[in-house]
Design a protein that fits this description.
By secondary structure, the protein is mostly helical. The chain has three helices and no strands. The protein has one domain. Helices cover 52% and strands 0% of the residues. It binds zinc ion.
């Protein structure tokens, strides 16, 4: 028996990194590792896999931004090459992790919503 849950927008749940069904439980137990189940509604996250989807989007956002910033810095300030080596790797790492969490959560919420065929309760863990 499942309880009815009010609809949760996939982008709202994704940006807040919350459960796609209840919008309350935390999706992550670590930086990018998913909880096994929702701590609020017990939705099973174990079968959930967003694969490389979030990395694709993050790569195509972070890459051009960093390249434009690096070119701009080079053309305006002409810093020594070690400045680029010291500046950009940490910014890429922090930016990628910062964007991966909401992108992964949003894709999981969209998968949950679009696979849902039972009145919004989702089908995580069920075979097709
Ligand atoms: Zn939940």
């Amino acid at each position: 028996m499942t309880e009815p849950f009010p609809p949760v927008g996939p982008f709202s749940a994704g940006v807040r990194c919350r459960c796609p069904r209840c919008g309350v439980g935390r999706l992550y137990r670590g930086i990018l590792a998913l909880n096994e189940t929702c701590d609020a509604c017990s939705l099973d996250f174990r079968a959930e896999d967003s694969a490389d989807g979030p990395a694709f989007f993050v790569m195509f956002i972070i890459g051009p931004v960093i390249v434009v910033l690096a070119v701009w810095l080079e053309l305006t300030a002409h810093p020594p090459i070690w400045v680029h080596g010291l500046l950009w790797p940490p910014l890429v790492t922090i930016g990628a992790i910062g964007l991966l969490r909401p992108f992964k959560a949003t894709l999981i919420a969209l998968q949950y919503r679009n696979r849902s065929g039972d009145g919004g309760q989702g089908q995580f863990g069920k075979s097709e």
